[in-house]
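Deliverable D4.2, example record:
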Amino acid sequence: MPTSSDLAISVRSLSKLYAIGEKRQGYRTLRESLSSLFSRRASKNGHAGDGAAPKTFWALRDVSFDVRRGEIVGIIGRNGAGKSTLLKILSRITDPTSGEVEISGRAGSLLEVGTGFHPELTGRENIFLNGAILGMKRAEITARFDEIVSFAGTEQFLDTPVKHYSSGMYMRLAFAIAAHLEPEILIVDEVLAVGDAEFQKKCLGKMGDFSHSGRTVLFVSHNMAAVNSLCKRCILLESGSIVTDGPTEKVTGLYHAQFAEAVWGQSDLRAAPRTGNGEARFTSMTVQPVAPDSSPLDAAYTGCDLDIKLIIEASQDISNANVSLIIWDRSGYRLTNVNTWKKGRLLDLLAGDRACIRFRVRELLLLPGSYVIGLWIGHERVDAIDYIEQAASIDVVPNPADNKSPMEFSGPYLCRFDQDISVLPNRESSEDILQASDVEI
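Output generated by the structure prediction step:
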């Protein structure tokens, strides 16, 4: 059992209740306040009131966990699981309905793009403003100012009001401030969602440095590859409660299993969790494992083909759209991405059109196990029209024709190769030996 001195965060029986549809009251005059008072008295005497009481729901319910100093803990779960509510309570933005939180040390929070920024102030001014919000003295901010600007890469726009920044520039500057002002606890919510690949790499490296220096990170993300690479421990939330708390690989595997059941045949995707601008949507997917002669199989085995048919419906005109099919392993690592752009084919649809996209994945050289299929359609390989990260999962079984089980080999997938092995006589020249024993693959 960790002692209190070992703990950076201690959460006990934390709950948060919200009202749904409750009408928010604006500022009122004295006359309106008095009128409301008499109306409430009339209601108590049997007269008509203002309507039914608002419905409520528990965003968090009886959540308890501890975080040791120096730990990087991932918090994952589908949308609405309670992740952001938890972080807002830990950041003292909102109060819990019940329960308690103990935080030992100065905490810095990065919850939304531009949190704590004033849009009319420049980037330079917001560095000092945001640093003050985090509890830093002006001398501390000044000492780290050049590091912050260099990390954010916003030198050119430092004296521009941040209302003119893109969301990516906002996030780079906000993360740079939070990371370089060195809070003892860093609370981060989806910081990688708007960053490019280079910035994401810098963020992960910086958070890794945090743990090595004995500081603590709470990291919320839907990017399971980032969670797996950064966190040794993970907490899975569902409907406001903790489902499991343990090693990251085990917890992320359970997270993927929540979304997608192993399926062969057709799946209805209209109600699937998704992101994107909604100009078009994946409505169904059919997955069928097939043998090399195109005959259907009852199960997918290592080396078989997959026939995948996607139905897309457009609500607006779209042009030059790229359709991608992504295969993830259970830990959230992207193994492959096949798409129409790679074949030189982009999709044009008018509002109301339906399109059928067929992929034939040749020689599925994955080791036996469970995998997740994701679907994406968008422009320029950047802007998402519709993205379903976990559309379905597939189970791959050993090939019955193989003499040796692929499980004897390591790595996420296999490859086909040829080789030539020669037994050579003794030679004096090592160069001759190398030339004679080359293996062609």
